[in-house]
Amino acid sequence: MIDPDEIAREAFFRLRQRRKAMAVAGETPNWGVDPVGWVQRRLGETIWSKQRDILESVRDNRRTVVRASYDVGKSWSASRLAAWWLDTHAAGSAFVVSTAPTFNQVRAILWREINRAHAKGKLLGRVNQTEWWIGNELVGLGRKPADYDPTSFTGIHARYVLVIIDEAGGVPAALWDAADSLVSNADSRILAIGNPTDPSSKFADICKPGSGWHEIGISAFDSPNLTGEAVPPDVSAVLVSKLWVEEKRNDWGEGTPMWTSLVEGRFPEEATDSVVPLAWATRCRVAPDIEPLPAMDEANELGVDVGGGGDETVIYHRMGPRAKLLWHGITPDPMVVVGQVINAIRDTGATSVKIDVIGIGWGVVGRLKEQFEQHVHGAEIYGVNVAESPRDAEKFHKLRDEIWWEVGRENSRPGLWDLRGASDATIGQLISPKYSVDSSGRIKVEKKDETRARLGRSPDEADALLLAFYNPVEAPDPGELYNITECLNTRCLRLFVFDPGRRCPYCGTPCGDKRNPKKY
């Protein structure tokens, strides 16, 4: 019976012997110590300067961390390192393990590129979506461990282990120690790469001096498309461009957290007064491993911020937890806005539309309500005046403060909404406003004009997004619906059905003549 493992070992032995003979003849360098030469000669690909720094750092340093802007080829570099690692070590002596915050990121980013490298170099073994096999031996594995599971990486042993942590900013701190335990010997390596979005993350900690990691920073301004470094057209086409940088300068503004992180490739300062931190908004744009099935009764609604004085009018669609930018444009004519809203209602089947009535928005609301009565559309129209008093006047100064906090912050913090359909400009606006607390303990979000002054533009897209998720109809108090009272004894505070003169069934305290409502 043919032993696949024996075949693989024999093939690798012959390959090594052929390479040694070529090296003696001066035909090729020792690729085991030259990852850059391996990529150039073995795969026929071009390495630009910052990618060369990554490959050589992994060769020379046990721990390498790369913080980088968008589209500078960091995951491509990691995939070539994985292929080089397994191709230049004897079969069975080396192992590559990769991880990322979600399984989709493991499969669709790094292992997609590993597959391409394997095919291009006609390398040993076979590769599927997340595994590399040589014969019957597993030599490479992409894994998304359960969060906070320190045992996720146990059982992986080899002399030469390469650990790759992709999208490192979203990997929980507990998994870093588990991953690091795999490189306890001198011949193993660990590479962490990602966008520097969360200054409070473990990723940020290891990028600090004295962490023991060799740090490499890559800015969009390091890209050959901005430096003039010579690269082939096919390489230039997949790297960040001058056009994109200028678009983000307009969308986000220099010095903003998104500019600092995703253009300059640096961690933004950790602001304690941001309504929505960048790290929270970023997590809301990550695809889950399993897409949830739509609910039968999920909300289908529109939010409209009507621009005036040169500001944009924006329409956002909310379908359950999913947000999508539908339309934005500058127009001084309210009836043009009405037409765009009618089109949006027809296209989405939205059942309600929430519109900011300050400025020219009141005319849009009035006309849409008339058209509802005329059966032109079937959506409920709500005018929202964000300058009015909030529902919770003890906690907030104005309704605008309440909407930004309860909708923007409280949907972002636990990841309740899906912002994959939101534009980069929307996210830049969402994370920009700051808040303060007045002498009465009420939360005040900075005024729109103050945000406009810092951004260079009005946060119209973010305002429309918040309106799409805002509920203008206050939910009924469950206690009032079911006549529930809370015990007056502060040591008890249990709930029971109210009846005048009744005592608490738990502690015996009289409940009085009026229901004691609990705030839900």
Layout of helices and strands:
Elements: H1 4-24, H2 35-42, H3 49-60, E1 63-68, H4 74-87, E2 94-99, H5 103-121, E3 126-127, E4 131-134, E5 137-142, E6 160-165, H6 173-180, E7 189-194, H7 202-206, E8 214-218, H8 224-227, H9 233-236, H10 242-251, H11 257-262, H12 278-283, E9 300-305, E10 313-319, E11 322-329, H13 334-348, E12 352-356, H14 361-373, E13 380-384, H15 399-412, E14 418-421, H16 424-430, E15 435-437, E16 443-445, H17 448-455, H18 460-469, H19 478-481, E17 484-486, E18 495-497
Parallel strand pairs: 1-7, 1-8, 2-5, 2-6, 6-7, 9-12, 11-14, 12-13
Antiparallel strand pairs: 3-4, 4-5, 9-10, 10-11, 15-16, 17-18
Helix pairs in contact: 3-4, 4-5, 13-14, 15-18, 16-18
Average of per-residue pLDDT values: 88
Find the CATH superfamily of the largest domain: P-loop containing nucleotide triphosphate hydrolases
CATH class descriptor of the largest domain:
Alpha Beta
Beta-strand level of the residues, as a percent range? 15-25%
In the CATH hierarchy, the third-tier topology of the largest domain is known as: Rossmann fold
With strands numbered from the N-terminus, the spatial order across the biggest sheet is 3-4-5-2-6-7-1-8
Report on the biggest sheet: 8 strands, mixed
